Inverse folding.
C-alpha cells in the first residue's frame, strides 16, 4: 500500500516523523510538501517529492512533473487543470500547481492529512480520483479554530462525514470531532509514540536541592499554553514564602504581555524565559527539573507531558483536552482546573510536601503508563489496522 503522510512541511514534527519511519517498515511512504531540509531516512520505502524553496529548481521540477503527468496520466492532468481554475491570481495558481502536480503524478492509495484545517484543499483527491482520505486530529485545529472561524466550521461539517477515517490523539478530541459530523465508528484513538531510546533515559526523581523547587514548562509562546495563569500561580507561591525557580522554554520572541506581567508581579528573580533547544539537549535539561508544569487552556494530549513521564519528571497539568487520559491524580501526576491559578499553586505545594517516596512512586506509575500505551509495537500495529480499515 502506498501511503502519503502529508503535513505540508519536510521534515515535519517529531510525532509525524516517527509515524513516517514506522509505517515504512510495512508500507511504501510518499512525502509531499515544502522542503526545508532533506531528512535522513534509512529506508528505501520512503520517497520524497517536495516543493523546493529555490524558485528556479522548483520551476524546473514543476515543469518536468507536469510533462510526465500529461504524458502518463492525462485524466489526472485534466483534474489538476480543473482544480487550479478554482484559484485566483497567476502566482497563487502556480504555487498550488507546484504542490498538486507531484501528488497527482505519484498518486497514493491513502492520503493521510496531518492538519484538518487543510482538508478543503486536498479533498478532491477522494472526490475526483478515489484516493482513500484520512485525517489526524490533534489539538487546535479541532478544539478551538472552528469556534473562531465560521468558514472552517462550515468546511468541517461539509467534509467530515465523507472522510474515510480519523486518527485522534485522545478520546476527548474524537468526541469533539463528532460535533462536525465525524462518525464515531470512523474514529480511531492512537496514542503518540515515545521511542524506546527515550524510555531508556528514565530515572527516578531526586530530593529537592536547597529546598528550592525547580519547575519548567516547554511549548511555544501562545495564549493556549496558559503561561499567564502559571505566572499568577508563581506570585501566590512567592507570597507564601515558597522557594522556587520557574523556567519557560520556548522558541521565538517572548511576548511583551508576559514580560510585563513578570515585572508587575515581581517575579524577575524567579521566572526565566529560555530559548528552545534541540531535543537531545532538551531531554537532558528536563531531568534536572523537579516537576513539569502544563498550564494549558487547550491540548490534545501534550507530547511534552508524555516525554516528561518517560524521563521520570513528575507532571502537574491542567484538565484540558485529553490530559486526564494520561495524568491521573495521585497515580501518574497532579491535575488542576483550567485557568485556576489557586489550584495550580495548591498542586505545587502538594507536590512539594509529598515525600520523595511518593514522588518516585508517581513517576514510576507514569513511566509504566507511557511504556505500556505509547510504545512502538502498539503504535505501529494500530496504525497498520487504521490504514487497512480506511
Amino acid at each position: 500500500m502506498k501511503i502519503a503522510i502529508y503535513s505540508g512541511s519536510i521534515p515535519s514534527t517529531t510525532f509525524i516523523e516517527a509515524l513516517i519511519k514506522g509505517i515504512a517498515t510495512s508500507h511504501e511512504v510518499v512525502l509531499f510538501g515544502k522542503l526545508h531540509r532533506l531528512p535522513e531516512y534509512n529506508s528505501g520505502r520512503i520517497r520524497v517529492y517536495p516543493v523546493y524553496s529555490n524558485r528556479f529548481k522548483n520551476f524546473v521540477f514543476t515543469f518536468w512533473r507536469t510533462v510526465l503527468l500529461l504524458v502518463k496520466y492525462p485524466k489526472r492532468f485534466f483534474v489538476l487543470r480543473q482544480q487550479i481554475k478554482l484559484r485566483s491570481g497567476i502566482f497563487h495558481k502556480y504555487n498550488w500547481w507546484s504542490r498538486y502536480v507531484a501528488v497527482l503524478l505519484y498518486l497514493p492509495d491513502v492520503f493521510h492529512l496531518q492538519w484538518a484545517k487543510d482538508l478543503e484543499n486536498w479533498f478532491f483527491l477522494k472526490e475526483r480520483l478515489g484516493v482513500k482520505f484520512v485525517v489526524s486530529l490533534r489539538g487546535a485545529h479541532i478544539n478551538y479554530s472552528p469556534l473562531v472561524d465560521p468558514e472552517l466550521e462550515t468546511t468541517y461539517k461539509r467534509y467530515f462525514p465523507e472522510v474515510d477515517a480519523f486518527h485522534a490523539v485522545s478520546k476527548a478530541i474524537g468526541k469533539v470531532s463528532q460535533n462536525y459530523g465525524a462518525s464515531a465508528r470512523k474514529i480511531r484513538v492512537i496514542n503518540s509514540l515515545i521511542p524506546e531510546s527515550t524510555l531508556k533515559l528514565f530515572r527516578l526523581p531526586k530530593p529537592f536541592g536547597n529546598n528550592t523547587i525547580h519547575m519548567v514548562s516547554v511549548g511555544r509562546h501562545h495564549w493556549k499554553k496558559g503561561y499567564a495563569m502559571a505566572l499568577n500561580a508563581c506570585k501566590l507561591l512567592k507570597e507564601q514564602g515558597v522557594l522556587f525557580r520557574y523556567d519557560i522554554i520556548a522558541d521565538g520572541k517572548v511576548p511583551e504581555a508576559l514580560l510585563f506581567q513578570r515585572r508587575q508581579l515581581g517575579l524577575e528573580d524567579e521566572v526565566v524565559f529560555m530559548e528552545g533547544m534541540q531535543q537531545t539537549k532538551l531531554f537532558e535539561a528536563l531531568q534536572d527539573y523537579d516537576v513539569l508544569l502544563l498550564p494549558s487552556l487547550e491540548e490534545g494530549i501534550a507530547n511534552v507531558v508524555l516525554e516528561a513521564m518517560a524521563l521520570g519528571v513528575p507532571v502537574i497539568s491542567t484538565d484540558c483536552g485529553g490530559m486526564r487520559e494520561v495524568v491521573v491524580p495521585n497515580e501518574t501526576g497532579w491535575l488542576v482546573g483550567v485557568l485556576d491559578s489557586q489550584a495550580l499553586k495548591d498542586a505545587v505545594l502538594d507536590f512539594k510536601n509529598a515525600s520523595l517516596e511518593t514522588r518516585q512512586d508517581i513517576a514510576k506509575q507514569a513511566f509504566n503508563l507511557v511504556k505500556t500505551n505509547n510504545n512502538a509495537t502498539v503504535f505501529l500495529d494500530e496504525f497498520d489496522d487504521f490504514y487497512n480499515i480506511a
User: Anything to note?
Assistant: The chain has two domains: 2-51+109-193+375-389, 196-373. The longest strand covers residues 28-35. Residues 196-373 form a domain with the Rossmann fold fold (CATH 3.40.50.2000). The CA atoms of residues 8 and 33 lie 4 Å apart.
